[in-house]
Amino acid sequence: xxxxxxxxxxxxxxxxxxxxxxxxxxxxxxxxxxxxxxxxxxxxxxxxxxxxxxxxxxxxxxxxxxxxxxxxxxxxxxxxxxxxxxxxxxxxxxxxxxxxxxxxxxxxxxxxxxxxxxxxxxxxxxxxxxxxxxxxxxxxxxxxxxxxxxxxxxxxxxxxxxxxxxxxxxxxxxxxxxxxxxxxxxxxxxxxxxxxxxxxxxxxxxxxxxxxxxxxxxxxxxxxxxxxxxxxxxxxxxxxxxxxxxxxxxxxxxxxxxxxxxxxxxxxxxxxxxxxxxxxxxxxxxxxxxxxxxxxxxxxxxxxxxxxxxxxxxxxxxxxxxxxxxxxxxxxxxxxxxxxxxxxxxxxxxxxxxxxxxxxxxxxxxxxxxx
Length: 371
Known about the structure:
There is one protein chain. The chain has 14 helices and 12 strands. By secondary structure, it is an alpha/beta fold. The strands form 3 sheets. A 7-stranded parallel sheet has the order 6-5-4-1-2-3-12, sandwiched between helices. It has a 3-stranded antiparallel sheet with strand order 7-8-9, covered by helices on one side. The protein is elongated, with a radius of gyration of 25 Å.
């Protein structure tokens, strides 16, 4: 994405992840951030926040006319604008789509919210768990007889971020052909619902139960789930296809005839209990020595300290360190344009801001306002 200019109005949640994703792939991202009030404690340490990597930072107070004018001037040079505020906030600041597209008709204006730009809940507060709940996804995650389980903030936030990133790049492609920019409305509820497409297919086929923990991919099947080992650590197993399932049984030393009926759903609960007892006889790493890297479809459940140390992740350099902070490397990978190593965020200097169109008078005004 070298040559692509992205103007980010810094927010929480998936908007900064989407901007990081674009920056990782070479886009020039200029992030507009507010100066924190004296004594305020940010949610994340700015020096440690991985989502801010590969950025140039400009502090503006968008309630000041000169700062708003500077922001609108920056819009003229941007290919993409990303914001993650509640609907109407940018409009009240004079930086909504109408004003920005008037200043730059080719602009792609990316909007990241939980509920979307319209609808009865559009002005309501919320977080990942709320958007996940409304989409129908949260209800499907959990064990039989238990309550829904929170899958971190990966589904709505992560899905929303990638939905926004793909949406704005699609709109950039369109603008390149038509010369017209547009608004991209990315809602986390929409993204979560979209990620449930396979489950909706299974439901339409009569193959999906509304009971949690009773389906193929939600831990209901004995051959697709996590199991405790003798040392208290866990294995993830997933040999769905018949050859993989047979290989798993062979390597794990399971010969009881009832396990041959892989797709007898009535037997899944009892087979889960028997498999759980069997896997408790060895430690996680002992099982991995037998099963990992084979067609048994088995992997250790690693924590975030262990994961960077795994031989596969080390060989692929899936994890890296930036100034001593472990983090995932940029992805995906490209054969002819490999991703550059990430950098910590830096304050934008005057030469960069001049490239973005801020003239001497505006720069002087910003210096005066910042003290």
